[in-house]
Specification:
Layout lengths: L27 E5 L17 H14 L8 H12 L7 H9 L6 E6 L1 H4 L4 H11 L10 E5 L2 H10 L3 E3 L18 H25 L9 E6 L2 E3 L13 E7 L10 E10 L2 H12 L9 H13 L12 E3 L5 E3 L12 E3 L6 H19 L3 H5 L15
Parallel strand pairs: 2-3, 3-4, 7-9, 10-11
Antiparallel strand pairs: 1-2, 1-5, 5-8, 6-11, 7-8
Helix pairs in contact: 5-10, 7-8, 8-9
Pfam families: Nucleotid_trans
Protein name: Nucleotide-diphospho-sugar transferase domain-containing protein
Organism: Oryza glaberrima
């Protein structure tokens, strides 16, 4: 869950320029087209040359914490994810395939124990699908990535598609509600980006490294976000990357828009896999910042061609906040709203409070006659809001 933190620095106070990254501590969801069981990279990434990949694999296995109370198959799958390898038994790819729609779309969300607890963010996230307009069927296509054992147990109690992602750092506890921009918080959000990169590699290998035009694609989305209508209708196939916005200024192609990577779409092409690797590698250039801040800093590099300073050459588009919305720039017309993200909001309790209120307002909206809804006079109540404004 991104909130937003400033363009100058994600640690400063709130303003139109300093609200860019507040809150990436929640779960994320990704929509993937997946049809292969192998997860090995099809090309070297900036962080893993062929010479060093085996060393990293050995180190990751050696320091992987043992998952107490989790079956051996789950532990093996989690170790596989850490090492970035896989074979025909790769659990991650098998879960993705089981959850896929007919068009091979999968929605993925990641949670830790705090977000997965009864009555917490995961419950509200799932509830929004049930009360939204013709979107309840998407729930059966959600894969929940658990960041710790407690989240996995809770997921398995209420949902059919669950996957354990163990931390890359030995002894790292990702189960609690992490304070914004702490080291554990940053390790959490960057761990999720590594999983996105791996998913892109899985899909990219399916068609071969030179096939840039196949129809596979995936979308990653935070869990502090309510679905009320299908947001996929706002995605264009013309772009390599489509992202929601913290601040949108009217032109979807304007790189001056401020992205919110809590809802981001990638075509699953080798070019976008390279963009993912570039994004993750850029973390070293911005120590102490999280993934969304770094994405905003490098968006022009990603869009530049290889001959324009070594860029990747992807086309990035931004979604209007009137439809795919958030608290940074909230859409007021409920007749247009597809999703609402708890952006520009710090703290699990604050986010959960306002997420519940947003769902309550939506229930009130859909309970009114159609003619009354179409008049556009039913809006958010803002009653007792912690962050909504």
């Amino acid at each position: 869950m991104r909130g937003s933190a400033g363009m100058a620095s994600s640690k400063n106070g709130l303003s139109p320029v300093v609200v860019f990254l507040l809150g990436a501590a929640s779960a994320t969801a990704l929509i993937v087209f997946v049809f292969t069981s192998t997860a090995s990279p099809a090309w070297p990434t900036p962080e893993a040359t062929p010479a060093t990949r085996q060393e990293k694999k050995a180190a990751a296995v050696a320091c992987a914490p043992r998952a107490k109370g989790i079956d051996s198959e789950t532990r093996r799958a989690a170790r596989t994810n850490q090492t970035g390898g896989g074979d025909d038994d790769d659990e991650f790819a098998r879960i993705l395939r089981r959850a896929a729609m007919e068009d091979r779309t999968v929605i993925m969300t990641s949670v830790n124990e705090a977000w997965a607890a009864p009555g917490s963010l995961m419950d509200s996230f799932l509830e929004s699908f049930r009360v939204g307009e013709n979107i309840s069927h998407f729930v059966e296509h959600i894969v929940v990535v658990a960041m710790d054992e407690g989240a996995l147990r809770r997921c398995r109690a209420i949902h059919p598609h669950c996957y354990l992602l163990l931390p890359e750092v030995a002894g790292l506890d990702l189960s609690g509600a992490k304070s914004y921009m702490t080291k554990d918080y940053l390790d959490l959000v960057w761990s999720k980006l590594k999983l996105q990169q791996r998913a892109s590699m899985i899909v990219g290998e399916t068609r071969g490294v030179d096939d840039e035009e196949h129809d596979a694609r995936w979308r990653w989305q935070d869990v502090d976000l309510a679905w009320f209508r299908n947001p996929m209708v706002h995605i264009t196939a013309a772009a390599d990357i489509t992202t929601s916005s913290d601040f949108y200024f009217g032109d979807p192609d304007d790189l001056g828009n401020y992205p919110n990577t809590g809802f981001i779409y990638f075509k699953a092409t080798p070019r976008n896999a390279r963009a993912m690797a570039y994004w993750h590698a850029a973390r070293r250039r911005f120590p102490g910042e999280h993934d969304q801040f770094v994405f905003n800093e490098i968006k022009r590099e990603l869009a530049a061609g290889a001959g324009e300073g070594g860029g990747v050459g992807v086309r990035i588009r931004f979604i209007d906040t009137a439809a795919v919305s958030g608290f940074c720039q909230l859409g007021r017309d409920l007749n247009r709203i597809a999703t609402v993200h708890m952006t520009c909001c710090i703290g699990l309790e604050n986010k959960l409070h306002d997420l519940r209120n947003v769902i309550r307002d939506w229930r009130r909206y859909v309970a009114r006659p159609r003619w009354e809804r179409q008049m556009g006079k039913i809006g958010w109540t803002f009653e007792g809001g912690k962050c909504i404004h």
